[in-house]
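S.,

Sequence below, as promised.
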Amino acid sequence: MDLQLAGNLRIDLAALVANYRLIAAQVAPASVAGVVKANAYGLGAAEVSRALLDAGCRHFFVAHLCEATALHPHLPTDATLYVLNGVQPGAEAACAAIGALPVLNSLEQIDGWAATARRQGHALPAVIQVDSGMSRLGLASAELATLRDQPDRLAGIDVRLVITHLACADHPDDSFNPHQRATFDAIARQFPGVPRSIDNSGGAMTSGVTHGDIVRAGIALYGGAPHGKPNPMHAVVALDAYIIQLRTVEAGAGVGYGLTHRFDRPSRIATVSVGYADGWPRHLSNRGFAYIGGVRAPIVGRVSMDSLALDVTDVPDYLLYPAAAVELIGPHQSIDDVATQADTISYEILTRLGPRYARTYLPTPAAAIQEQ
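The prediction came back faster than expected:
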């Protein structure tokens, strides 16, 4: 581990590929797209995409055009790159220049893309997103009615896919799921012959449903539970920090800003190299845990910008020394466990992991495929 950095973030690409194949088997004959927005949930979009490409993935979703522009040079010509938030007015030509498919979420985005196609003198491919009940992105019922009445607004647009997004897929028994699927099926008939995409990770790992033509796998690829427990996915991420300093304090001593924790016995404290600037939630103050040599150590006091404190009184002395490894994510607690402690979701834990970690890819993308 490079001691100039806050810790060591290990990304297991073999596990990533195994998750991709598990999802693919679940949803066949649908194709599986890799959702690599937010720098592949903080794990490295180029590296993750390369591993998925070697596994056969050819569809990749990002959120913003800037992400598409950065990822485009790393993809082969037979891969398709989608921009979920569409394009802002004036950015259409830049999107077309790299061959990315914008997800058109409104009549204004449709009009802008159609105008770009007219200026360029040829049809441009795109995706249409419809709102089937989440009320976030996509054409609402009034806009769909307008499009039915004014079909020429799609002139010059080669609609490759119609999509929506499930609101409650992480709760597969929620009664809104079948309602939303039926709503989407009815809306999608407005685009006859166009492939469909509805399922995210939760939807993809739900049995007994029709998965459409492309599923958009995100958190499940990265080892997060698609819904509930047990989690069928392989762990992809491990994160170690290290001990900066050790000290012994008397009963009654406090620790951290505000002295929000006071010790009821003589105790040992380990100050650790990670804080909220590294994406370790401040909400874990006085409620989260870490592991040293497999022994659980509670976070005591407030998580600081660059460090946190652990009560290591019950950790054997031989495990405690400066630069000793501290497991934050690993075999003793998953990203979902950490999320539960922080009262959030695994998506937020991953995407907040900052640049001060040494990112190590185990194994290399080529080796990940060879081992399967």
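The mean pLDDT is 95.

Coffee later?
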